From TrEMBL:
InterPro entries: LysM, LysM_dom_sf. The keyword Signal applies. Residues 281-306, 316-339 have a biased composition (Basic and acidic residues). Residues 262-279 have a biased composition (Low complexity). Residues 247-339 are annotated as: Disordered. PROSITE patterns: LYSM. Residues 1-25 form the signal peptide. This is Peptidoglycan endopeptidase LytE. Residues 26-69, 73-116, 142-186 form the LysM domain. It holds the Pfam family LysM. Keywords: Signal. GO terms for molecular function: lytic endotransglycosylase activity.
Length: 339
């Protein structure tokens, strides 16, 4: 286990820090049944923006995978939004949003950009305070078992290995597809060969040393002959054995690679079927919503026509009443004149 000791020096200046109201709202943990299309619809962003933020090469995502859904600490108001809805979506409350954005009423409009976090000044730290921090590196391993939420990039970053090399060493064609419980080799064939060669050389050195110790009383010439003889014998006997072991390991690795490839193909097929089912369900819901909107529009039109007709009839009744009143007034005036 290696240890690295670092010294951190704090300066006597004001630093600006960002405080989130809740947990980072741009991070989302994938749930069962989620898809990129569903997440994009729910969060009113595009599938391409989610893939770009998370360096996704395909549309396949996994349960418990952490995804970034927003690229900043701001949100652009959409039609139908309210402060309460926005606050619920990002794990805060509408009063905090009003305070952060200097809003005095609940009135917002589409296109308005709202800040989701607030910035405050931290107090100045003590000058020239030195703190020693001990960081322990994780123990290196040759084989790693995939855990929930892992990706090749995460595993490579953890052990300081390029994820493309891990994919190459384990015969993985789709670098975005691994599964929980999968065993990954973190040591390439060249490293294994070098380690075997080092062990082999070390064995030779130990044998030679042992021969030297047992022949200290003999002459220098005899020692040289014995050493040469021992080294020659070891090379002739041990080398074929090492070669057999390499062949056996290659066969086992090939079988494991074929098994992993079959499991990956099955996982991709299941993901494709799930995506197709979700797309079909989304289209069905959209069709039902369109039909409901059409029926509502027809109902509204019928009510408008009925209202106009009722208004016209009322106007006609009032006009006839006015004519009747006028006729009665004229008749009264004529009777008065005749009298």
């Amino acid at each position: 286990m290696k240890k690295i000791v670092t010294a951190l020096t704090a300066s006597a200046a004001f630093a600006t820090i960002t405080l989130s109201q809740e947990a980072d709202a741009s991070e989302y943990k994938v749930q069962a049944g989620d898809s990129l299309w569903k997440l994009a619809q729910d969060n009113r962003v595009s599938i391409d923006s989610i893939k770009k933020l998370n360096n996704l090469k395909s549309d396949t995502i996994y349960t418990n995978q952490s995804l970034k859904l927003q690229d900043s600490d701001t949100y652009t108001v959409q039609a139908g939004d309210t402060l309460s809805k926005i606050a619920d979506r990002f794990g805060t409350n509408y009063r905090a949003l009003m305070e952060i954005n200097g809003i005095t009423s609940h009135l917002i409009y589409p296109g308005q950009v709202l800040e989701l976090k607030e910035t405050v000044q931290a107090p100045a730290p003590e000058p020239e305070e030195v703190v020693e921090e001990v960081v322990e590196e994780e123990e290196t391993v040759d084989v790693y078992t995939v855990q929930a939420g892992d990706t090749l990039a995460k595993i490579g970053g953890r052990f300081g290995i390029d994820y493309k090399l891990i994919a190459q060493w384990n015969n993985i064609e789709n670098v975005d597809l691994i599964y929980v419980g999968q065993k990954l080799s973190l040591v390439g064939e060249e490293a294994v060969a070098e380690e075997a060669e080092d062990d082999y050389v070390q064995e030779i050195v130990e044998e030679v040393t042992q021969v030297e110790e047992t022949t200290e009383t003999t002459s220098e010439a005899s020692e040289e002959v014995i050493e040469a003889s021992e080294v020659e014998t070891i090379v002739e006997v041990e080398a074929p054995q090492a070669e057999v072991e390499v062949v056996d390991n290659s066969a086992a690795e090939q079988a494991e690679a074929e098994r992993v490839a079959a499991e990956q193909a099955a996982a991709e097929q299941a993901a494709a079927e799930q995506a197709a089912a979700e797309q079909a369900e989304a289209e069905r819901i959209a069709a039902e919503q369109a039909e409901a909107e059409r029926i509502a529009a027809e109902q509204a039109e019928a009510e408008r026509i009925a209202a106009e007709q009722a208004a016209a009839e009322q106007a006609e009744v009032e006009r006839e009443a006015a004519q009747q009143a006028e006729a009665e007034r004229q008749a009264a005036e004529q009777a008065e004149a005749e009298r």
